[in-house]
Amino acid sequence: MKTHAIQIGQQHRELQIVNVGEVSVALLNLLGDAALTEAAAEALHAAMPDDIDAFVTPEVKAVPLAHAISYRTGIPYVVARKTEKPYMVNVVKKTVVSITTGEPQNLVIDGSDLDKIRGKKVAIIDDVVSTGGTLNGLQELLEEVGGTVIAILVVFTEGDRRDDVIALGHLPLFPKEAGV
Could you give the count of Cα atoms lying within 13 Å of 58 in the half-sphere of its Cβ? Predict the structure, then answer.
């Protein structure tokens, strides 16, 4: 198994390199890794701007990170779900394509969460941004509902480096055959 080493605070991990279509990626998975999530939350909290009113995160892998930063700051967060749930009212949604899924998927915000976003300065929290498909779709969705995105907080950029995000580090893309 090929891996790529990362370090966040005192937390060291060997990320497995996996194929995701035409390339392979070092797979960051915060789900179930409380120590790494907390280290990332602490570092991103220290790097974020002061005037954020709300956080928005895409479902699923960045949710624990958004929760940890929200807990530290007292700033509420909203999850952009991947599917519309029966209990949701007046949803707003956008279809995006992510490098990890390679398939169209929805970003859905429950209408009951819109007051946390509308007229607010919002920071997007995500684990990794690569092609920007999810990020761009989420930014457009937030602007459509009246939020102003003032920061994008991610653990890592991937592929091309980006100047439009606050990131703790960068992950390279690997040739397809580099994976398992």
Answer: 26
